[in-house]
Design brief:
Radius of gyration: 24 Å
Largest sheet: none
Order of helices and strands: HHHHHHHHHHHHH
Structural class: mainly alpha
Distance between the termini: 56 Å
Strand content: under 5%
Length: 292
């Protein structure tokens, strides 16, 4: 009985450990091992060891990867700034006591977030249709001619960003709204009595008190935006040309369309390590600023 009592806790967590090893740890170790080999699915029996060649090729010899990286960074910066600005504005507006029907507004704002990215992509693909889409129909009422939102190389990336902003601004609003509701009101009331303006209260009281929440939500959305795939795949498939090619979609093409699994594994590890380093750097910068 004594011996069984010692191993009993391990028996309870054994199913979770088995799932963790099977679904997470083993695939990660296997993908790392594959990244040092040339594994072409057209010849699956051949798997020569090439060392760091896949990583070197990805970093120096792949022109499409550089385009995908540039597009991904543009999406992350533009979408993140826009979603944060819109989410904070909506959170501040709906935090005012003078606003009526807050429940209805919150429900309507959260509706896009509840839809899956694939459904959102299909919906907006119909809305952006050059002939039958509602976007061009509304613009036509103002005398603006039909626009090729997803087929024009100059507009495709911006159109994809609009779709992501439409879907995920509600998530940013929800977190920031909850943060505004959680901070104490006494410092704000004291500053208001002393004659501080609304902007001064936001800048010197509200924003510093919400800094931990803002840091978390920015890191979360930044990582999520770097992994964007569903919306781009449904809307444009990375086109026209390479106008909307992103890192995840390009990695998918290399591994499952071109069958270079080893090269795709190397791209995945470069992507994961770079994203981890970026998130760690951002957290350390915010911690240092917060201590000051």
């Amino acid at each position: 009985m004594v011996r069984f009592s010692r191993i009993k806790p391990y028996l309870w967590i054994a199913p979770a450990l088995i799932l963790l090893v099977s679904l997470v740890i083993y695939p990660m170790v296997f993908s790392l091992w594959i990244s040092f080999h040339t594994w072409f699915l057209g010849r699956p029996q051949e798997m020569p060891f090439v060392g760091l060649f896949n990583y070197q090729y990805a970093l120096t010899g792949d022109a499409v990867l550089r385009i995908a990286f540039t597009n991904t960074v543009i999406i992350v910066i533009v979408a993140l700034v826009t979603e944060f600005a819109l989410g904070m504005t909506l959170a501040i507006l709906l935090s005012r006591e003078s606003i009526r029907f807050k429940g209805i507004f919150r429900t309507c704002l959260l509706a896009p977030m509840l839809m899956t990215p694939v459904v959102v992509g299909v919906l907006w693909r119909f809305m952006f249709h050059p002939t039958f889409g509602i976007v061009n129909y509304v613009l036509g009422l103002f005398g603006i001619g039909p626009t090729l939102w997803l087929s024009d190389i100059r507009l495709a990336l911006g159109s994809s960003i609009i779709v992501d902003v439409w879907q995920w601004t509600p998530f940013m609003f929800l977190v920031l709204y909850a943060g505004l509701q959680s901070i104490p009101r006494d410092p704000q009331e004291a500053a208001r009595i002393d004659g501080a303006s609304r902007w001064e209260i936001l800048r010197y009281i509200v924003f510093p008190m919400m800094r931990p929440i803002i840091t978390i939500i920015i890191i979360f959305r930044m990582i999520d935006l770097f992994k964007i795939f569903d919306i781009i795949y449904v809307l444009t498939r990375g086109g026209p040309g390479d106008a909307t090619e992103v890192l995840t979609l390009y990695t998918f093409r290399v591994g499952l369309n071109y069958y270079y699994v080893g090269r795709a594994a190397a791209l995945s590890w470069i992507f994961a390590l770079g994203l981890s380093a970026l998130a760690t750097l951002y957290v350390r910068m915010m911690r240092a600023e917060f201590r000051v």
